[in-house]
Amino acid sequence: MYYIKEKSRSKAQIPFKILAYTVCIILTVLCIFPFVVMIINSTRSTPQIQQHAISLIPSKYFMDNLEILTSKTFDPLVGFGNSLIISIFSTACTIYFSTMTAFAIVAYDWKLKNAFFTLIMCVLMIPTQVTCIGFYQFIYKIGMTNSYLPLILPAIAAPSTVFFMRQYMVPTLPMEILQSARIDGAGEFRIFNQIVLPMMKPAMATQAIFAFVTSWNSYFLPSILITRSEKYTLPMMVSLLKGDIYKTEYGSIYLGLFLTVLPLLVMYFILSKYIIAGVALGGVKG
Questions:
Q1: DSSP string, the chain
Q2: pLDDT of 79-126, one tens digit each?
Q3: Which top CATH class is 72-240?
């Protein structure tokens, strides 16, 4: 009787599995399809794109689009290097200091801890556009326009990353290990750098992807703080293709967009193993 019930239950689960796999396949195709179209259109000419905006057949105009892309004032290597400098350092500041802030909230008991965390959540609700005018005036008065520091240092204050790190740290950080390290004479910075950070690798990898993507795709703040063409980021340079003689060169625009997205894909593939390891660890603990 028990065998019959289990057999009927397994048969009932088959349609659900098929539905789940079908939905996953559809979502995967929907996510990948825009990237495929972008890559293929970067190999096509402008007349081909104007006639058929969507095509799955590559063409032979990749080098022509690259020649248009690298002509005039557009230098993708310079833009790539500028964006890479800003994104790497801002991501490092975001991950390290946000993890440190979350550690201070979780590991220590102090009177204003809850009020401090509430204040961080309130700052999270303030959009960047509200404070950009005052931020620009401040940066202009201290003479730091056309510098990368105003785009890197504010990344230290990342409320959303602090919230994520705090939520991840609460169930996974064993206080007994911290107490044992203190008894052995380890300082707080050594405990944080050598014990806490290795435990936080999955969460740090996840947030590093989001922070890197946000910094790499940032256009609003760099466009108001940077006016020298040699300091332009890659998104700023790609935006220049829409004007002047490049406004009809859609193939070069797609190629520029592909170059913009390429580092994000590389960043994800580098850090994805840490995310998968964290998910597997959570499943074992569960």
A1: -HHHHHHHHHHHHHHHHHHHHHHHHHHHHHHHHHHHHHHHHTTS-HHHHHH-S--SS--S-HHHHHHHHHSTT--HHHHHHHHHHHHHHHHHHHHHHHHHHHHHHHH---TTHHHHHHHHHHHHTS-HHHHHHHHHHHHHHTT-TT-SHHHHGGGG--HHHHHHHHHHHHHH--HHHHHHHHHTT--HHHHIIIIIHHHTHHHHHHHHHHHHHHHHT--HHHHHH---GGG--HHHHHHHTTSGGGGG-HHHHHHHHHHHHHHHHHHHHHHHHHHHHHHHHHHHH-
A2: 888 998 999 999 999 999 999 999 988 888 888 888 888 888 888 888
A3: mainly alpha
